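Re: Re: token formats

Sure, here are both.
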Amino acid sequence: MRKLYEINEDIERCIQNGIDEDTGEFTAFDELSALQMERDAKLEGVALYIKDARAEATAIKAEIDALKKRMEKLIMKADGAEEWLSDNLNGQKFSTPRVECTFRKSDGVELDDEFAEWATMHPDLNLIDVQMKVVPKKSEIKKLLKQGIILEHCRLDVRQNIQVR
């Protein structure tokens, strides 16, 4: 199968060599038409490949979403069963040849809603981190640039995005 750049080169050659030197008329219409049809078929094939790949990706995503929902349901069921088992064992060890249930002690911190305000009033204790994040508002910047307003370190990038349907 010929590559697109080879077809394009043949089209260029056909255009250059298809002119009658005596009359200046273009005479290679049939050859040019055949090359153009070959080029169109190649482009159509690539576009159809893109459609097919995107459709398959969409189907895979749908399957992933369905499996994710099933997984979440199973995890919720297991968590509920684990809570029931823990409540019924009440800290007591349980063991059979196929399963063993034990308990281990752990510590955790629970904070009231008012903690952040209280900790802010006591900076000497160093109990909180204050984080600041700077995020450019690209939609606002885009509006200003489209209005012709010049902003330093910004430019409007005009793109050509192909749509394959």
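Second one below.
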Amino acid sequence: MASLNYPRVRRAGRWFDLRRRRMGMWAYALNRITGIGLVVYLYLHLVILSQLPGGPGSWNAFVALARSPFFLTLDVVLIAGILIHGLNGLRIALTGFGIGVKAHKILFGIVMFIAVIALGVAAVLIYGG
């Protein structure tokens, strides 16, 4: 019976093996990881919004905490997740419609370049503003 589970464990272990990974696997992994992160953020956001009925005192305490450098860094990470997931999803949608299928690796590089530039601008605005 243990031998029946071995191939499953081995297949699951391959997901974490970073050798000989192609661009498509990195795009797939990034999309899944950012998607999970955005869902987790959504639930945390709802928990934070549940503090609103607590009155101005609890909300003002949270706003003071949210303006700390640690939370500003988390905002940059959130924007990175939104950009990566959104732009990669746009690339997937385009290739799903048959646009850019042969150049999907180049398209992935382009959307990640756009994400890095937009993230740099967002980081400057978050930390500078």
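Residues 35 and 118 are 19 Å apart (CA to CA). The mean pLDDT is 86.
- S.
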